[in-house]
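TA notes, week 10

Several of you asked for a full example with nothing omitted. So below is the full record: structure tokens for the whole chain, then the designed sequence directly under it. When grading your own attempts, check the secondary structure regions first.
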């Protein structure tokens, strides 16, 4: 979602996903389409200026990247990698980022399309010796052009028959140069999912070097990686979004449940406990994963509704005035 209260997402169907846009000002929910002949589409992110990054799913083909604007425009993105590609996010300057993958190659390669011509370039993964980069992913971009994501690697054994070590590192790209953000407690597994205007980054990281170590939400700011913890009773968490006021949202998990959280002023809150008791949805909704937060504190959340069981639903939380 963006700071204007516009939310985008997708609805799963039996054939292909359908992209949608919701505008709180009008209450309108509308479908997004890049091509009338497509079988479906994805909407993955929206900038404050109203650029919606996503992809079309051609009939019988792999997803192809493109974007919409809230004013009604749409454009396919072309380049060297045009198979199994999606646009993931955009900033207010019109720069769009995404990822490419295809069977038999690296499983993901980050792409950047720069306005106004939208020429496509690629981003590097982390350098490593005797290793294979199996997944490099771009997740978010801010207005300064800083991009965050993750870089995965697999180091082969000396005889090339097995994996000697592997890791997933949260990373940031500045002007095409990559920086390793590290992991909590020296962990080799971390990923960055969002970045604010000032460069503060959030994501998830294992809390130790052991393969079974829990994953915790983190905040990376001014070179310091901070463990945000979990909701009481949970073992794992992930931070998905941060606004310019420093509010962070995400998901906290136990073995049996998932709960959406809000983190602010050093404390993590269960969003389920913050629903207004006067709301018609109070006691009926289970908020499981908070995926976006705007500057005004509005939060986009995925969850379930006991009045309509068996389905995941999208919700918009608006703070009481």
């Amino acid at each position: 979602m963006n700071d204007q209260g516009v939310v985008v997402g997708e609805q799963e169907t039996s054939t292909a996903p359908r992209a949608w846009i919701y505008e709180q000002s009008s209450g309108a929910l509308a479908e997004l389409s890049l091509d009338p002949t497509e079988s479906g589409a994805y909407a993955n992110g929206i900038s404050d200026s109203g650029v919606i990054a996503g992809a079309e799913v051609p009939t019988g083909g792999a997803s192809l990247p493109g974007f919409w604007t809230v004013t009604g425009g749409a454009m396919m993105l072309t380049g060297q990698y045009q198979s199994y590609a999606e646009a993931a996010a955009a900033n207010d300057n019109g720069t769009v980022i995404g990822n490419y993958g295809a069977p038999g190659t690296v499983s993901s390669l980050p792409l950047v399309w720069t306005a106004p011509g939208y020429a496509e370039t690629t981003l590097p993964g982390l350098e490593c010796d005797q290793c294979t980069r199996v997944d490099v992913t771009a997740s978010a971009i801010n207005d300064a052009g800083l991009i965050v994501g993750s870089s995965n690697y697999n180091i082969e054994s000396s005889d090339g028959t097995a994996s000697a070590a592997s890791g997933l590192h949260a990373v940031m790209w500045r002007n095409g140069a990559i920086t390793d953000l590290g992991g909590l407690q020296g962990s080799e597994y971390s990923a960055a999912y969002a970045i604010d205007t000032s460069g503060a980054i959030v994501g998830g990281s294992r809390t130790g070097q052991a393969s079974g170590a829990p994953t915790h939400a983190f905040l990376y700011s001014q070179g310091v990686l901070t463990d945000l913890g979990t909701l009481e009773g949970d073992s794992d968490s992930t931070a998905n979004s941060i606004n310019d006021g420093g509010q962070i949202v995400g998901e906290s998990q136990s073995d049996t449940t998932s709960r959406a959280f809000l983190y602010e002023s050093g404390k993590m809150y269960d969003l389920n406990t913050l629903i207004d008791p006067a709301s018609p949805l109070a006691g009926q909704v289970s908020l499981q994963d908070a995926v976006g937060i705007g500057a005004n504190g509005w939060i986009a959340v995925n969850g379930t509704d006991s009045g309509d069981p068996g389905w995941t639903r999208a919700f918009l939380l608006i703070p009481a005035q």
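Residues 62 and 83 are 6 Å apart (CA to CA). Use that as a sanity check on your answer.
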